[in-house]
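DM from R.C. (forwarded with permission)

"hey, sorry to bug you on a friday — could you get me a structure for this? deadline for the figure draft is monday and I only need the backbone to look sensible"
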Amino acid sequence: KAAAIPVRDLLREAGITLSHYGPGTHRTSCPKCLGGSDKEKSLSVTINADGEFVYNCFRGSCGFNGGSGKPLSGSAARPNSANNKTLMPLRGKESETYTVPKPSFLPVVPPQVVQFFAKRGIMKETLDKARVQAEMAHCPQKGHKALSVAFPYYENGQLVNIKYRLPGEKVFWQAKGAKKILYGLDDIANESTIIIVEGECDKLALLQAGYTNCVSVPDGAPSKVSETGVPEDPDQDKKFSYIWNCRAQLDHASKILIGTDSDGPGQALGEELARRLGKERCWQIKWPEGCKDANDTLQQHGPQGMKAVLESPEAFPIRGLFDFKMFQDDILNYYGLKDADERRGVSTGWKTVDEYYRVVPGELTIVTGVPNSGKSEWIDALLYNISSQSGWCFALCSMEKKVREHARQLLEKHTGKPFFDAPYARGEKRMSQEDVEAG
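My reply, with the result:
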């Protein structure tokens, strides 16, 4: 049977990029007309649960349309063969060749392996359901054969990789040259909601709690989030090749719960996964206090505790979107203000003005008026009043005045005396040099 071609690849061959590729109707920019002068999202893309899709631009002057070759259920829409070429999967290079593991699993999982998982709250029935095995495998780190837990990685029912670990130590390795995919990949086929965790034992812990729609990453977490972002070419994204290898299954999901470890590397892994999967469909699982991961949660809180955590995920942070909890300190400080005047900001120094306007930290004030109406003089007076009465300091940027002239005006407000013996002084004695130096 021919391998399924990911919807993502087919649509990208037609120049169409979506935020995610799960079932439903999506609106995006048309690659042909680019939405016209209004840049509207005029292209409608409908994807069926079985992977069939059609697309159509609703701008009358465009007519861009096509699809996967046959109509969607309940729809007579069919690609226009006269206007569209046959869609083919992207092929930047020849498909990679992987080594298929040839294990020698033990006929029965030994008691010490069963006991290892039992201490983690994972029972024998769960091991059988996940097809966990044991093998006397060569351990590269030890340099000899040792009894090892074997986690088989299946894709469409076919064994493609095996990850091993020693039951008594945190020693891991994988079958050499095998394809990197997510552990438990077949369990998320056609699932609209999936869970991604950091280790095989976390996947088994969720299975023990009754959640089958879960996968684990095959490799460890990075020490920190990459500063260079996601490579544009998936072939260059070697560390996360398992995401691209599983994109056909992942694209089907409309909601992805990311339950990586609560430590620094685990949180970095969660960020890297969300970058590649699309943060708009990713949610964070927050493990309970004192629990690092799903397995800890199962051991300390049981299946009900696991259920409570999974039912209250948090939306993945997206730049420009905020949660009220992010402003908790500011809200509490606001609550702690003593009176109405304090909540309204500080006085301008003029009681009649205070009835209509007071200066509040964090707010932007724009003063407008016709030329030569005294805007700058009024603002200087306002700054002086607030500085003298409330102790505020200010930074000034004046595009019109020289520094010495601005200083003169501020000194006159500070001393209440004229800077020069000039007509505007109206006979009042000018300020002394000591006044200038003190000011």
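R.C.: lifesaver. Residues 70-94 have pLDDT under 50 and may be disordered.
me: no worries. Residues 372 and 401 are 13 Å apart (CA to CA).
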